[in-house]
Amino acid sequence: QVQLVESGGGLVQAGDSLRLSCAASGRYPMGWFRQAPGKEREFVAAINTSPGSTFYADSVKGRFTLSRDNARNTAYLQMNSLKPDDTAIYYCAADAEGDYRTTSGWRFWGQGTQVTVSS
After folding, report:
1. Which among 33, 34, 43, 55 has the fewest CB atoms less than 10 Å away?
2. How far apart are CA 46 and CA 85, in angstroms?
3. Does position 69 have pLDDT exceeding 90, yes or no?
4. How far, in Å, CA of 82 to CA of 54, rounded?
5. What are the C-alpha distances in Å from 48 to residues 14, 32, 52, 56?
6. pLDDT of 1 over the 90 cut
7. Whole-angstrom Cα distance, residue 111 to residue 94?
């Protein structure tokens, strides 16, 4: 069983930045999804183990950057120019085994961290 520990959520104003972290108990492809109230969980970004290729949803491309530290088995989601529409619970995922853009494509999930962006 893979353990995922997320951190870094909070309340910020529009235009601010936040960095989310997800520490895994091993080295896996990792991703981030988010779920706003009343909406389905949606793909945000993903990164493979090596060479660390990244993939982004169109809604965050150019504003969010996903990176990883393989020595620490940790992925970092740097979120810049945050908008109120980015408000959601952000979930870390690990060990992709299918379409990385779908929730069914991942085996393990973190508990989620709340990100709230005020206007």
Report:
1. 55
2. 20
3. yes
4. 20
5. 30, 12, 5, 12
6. no
7. 12
Q: pLDDT tens digit string along 39-61?
A: 999 999 999 988 889 999 999 99
Nearest to 115 by CA among 89, 91, 97: 89
Q: Using CA atoms, how far apart are residues 34 and 44, in angstroms rounded to an integer?
A: 7
Query: What length does the chain have?
Result: 119
Smallest CA-to-CA distance from 34 within 77, 89, 81, 75 is with 89
Rounded percentage of the chain residues whose pLDDT exceeds 90: 92
Q: How far apart are CA 25 and CA 40, in angstroms?
A: 27
Q: Dig out the tokens for 39 from the structure.
A: 């909406």
